[in-house]
Each structure stands twice: as structure tokens, then as C-alpha cells.
Amino acid sequence: MSTKNNAAPALSMSAMTKILVIVFTLNLIVEKIAQLSQAIGLAGTTDARAMLMLSFRLPHFWTGILVPVSYLVALWSASNLLRAYERARGFDLAVFQEMKTVGANLMYAGIAALFLVPTLESWINLGGRSFSVNFDINPVAIGMIGVILKLIGRRSAETSEQTQ
């Protein structure tokens, strides 16, 4: 006769995912500060205010943050999905709502990588107002997974609401 251990793990997957998001966010901040520090070092000052003012003059600094931040938001919402699943110990309406949120955030991340950032950078570089697209397989796959998760979450939530 075997006994199952139903005790929760010391650190849940949702908590570990949030810790990873925090670590990745700090890494992104350090990386962007290092980029600004190199530019500021050429100017001869290391003032934080000067770094901020320089960042406003470097639009690619900000467009380079859009996609990683959207991925981090999607990963944070995936952590919320895991937490809802851990609490429910299965699939319920809260899990389906979180699944829709994860799908939407992944979809937004894909849109940012495919359309938003290339278009903004084209406007900055070329001064035109044309629409640019970067058809790379990674953001296409991420965006499509987001669409699929959102549709599954929406349909499952509707079915769950009808049965209750």
C-alpha cells in the first residue's frame, strides 16, 4: 500500500517563475545601464540624471526595451496561471481566465517584436511613416501560441460558466 505525499513543495513553480522574472528584469536593467554608461563615459560624466537625459536622445534604447519587457510581462502572467492551477489543483474558471491573460500577453509580445519595434525603428532611422515588419520565426511562434492559448482559455471559460 502506497501513500501519496500531498504536501505542497517548499517553493512552488509559480514562485520560482516570479523569481526568474525578477532576475531577468534586474539583468535587463543592468544591461541597459551598461549601454548608457558606455555612452556617458564618452561624454565624461556618470551622473544618473545625465544618463536619463541621454536615454531620451537615444530612441533605440527605448525600442530595445519594448520586446523584452513584453516577454517578462507574459512570463509573469504565466506565473499567475501556475498559481491559479496550484490553488485549484486542476482546471477551473480562474485558471481559464489566467490562460486568456497569458495568451493575450504572448500575443502582444509577438506583435511588438513583429510589427511595433520594426516600424518605430524604421520611422526613427528613415524618417518615413511606412509600416515595417520583421518576419522572424520566433515572434511568429510566440504570437501564435498566444492566440491559441487565448482562444482555448476563452472557450474553456465560456464552457465552464455554462456548466456552473
From TrEMBL:
Which stretches are transmembrane? 63-82, 102-120, 132-152
Superkingdom classification of source: Bacteria
Q: Which UniProt keywords are listed?
A: Membrane, Transmembrane, Transmembrane helix
What protein is this chain from?
DUF2975 domain-containing protein
Organism, by scientific name, is Undibacterium nitidum
